[in-house]
UniProtKB/TrEMBL annotation:
Gene Ontology molecular function: L-rhamnose mutarotase activity
Superkingdom assignment: Bacteria
Enzyme class label: isomerase
EC id: 5.1.3.32
Gene that produces this protein: rhaM
Signal sequence coordinates: none
UniProt keyword annotations, A-Z: Carbohydrate metabolism, Cytoplasm, Isomerase, Rhamnose metabolism
InterPro entries found in the cross-reference section: Dimeric_a/b-barrel (IPR011008), L-rhamnose_mutarotase (IPR013448), Rham/fucose_mutarotase (IPR008000)
Record organism: Spirosoma rhododendri
SUPFAM superfamilies to which the protein is assigned, alphabetical: Dimeric alpha+beta barrel
Protein name (Swiss-Prot/TrEMBL): L-rhamnose mutarotase
GO BP: rhamnose catabolic process
């Protein structure tokens, strides 16, 4: 299955709150992600730059493509005060190209 990766940007001073909210991620959002074929979803933080690096294994579309669902719209609105966002509250997300893989 394909793996996609992308980066996002936190606002200064929001690292702890971002981690807290993800530690309490809504069960219905997790269900949507799993049911949409998203697994092994990881988000890494570069503490020196507030940059987030995410990767996920997909059997359909990535989580960024779920923005038309009500639960994702609510999650994006909930997280919008912590990170750089687009006009619809979706996180500004830059796709990353894989340059190395070791199975």
């Amino acid at each position: 299955m394909p793996v996609v990766a992308f980066r996002m940007k936190l606002r200064p001073g929001c690292q702890a709150e971002y981690q807290r909210r993800h530690a309490e991620i809504w069960p219905e959002l997790l269900t949507l992600l799993h049911d949409s074929g998203i697994s092994d979803y990881r988000i890494f933080l570069d503490e020196s730059t507030d940059m987030l690096f995410a990767s996920q294994t997909i059997s359909g579309e990535s989580s960024q493509a779920l923005g038309q669902t009500e639960i994702v719209k609510r999650w994006w609105a909930y997280m919008a005060d912590l990170m750089d966002t687009n006009d619809d509250n979706s996180p500004v997300s830059v796709p990353l190209r894989e340059v190395f893989y070791m199975p």
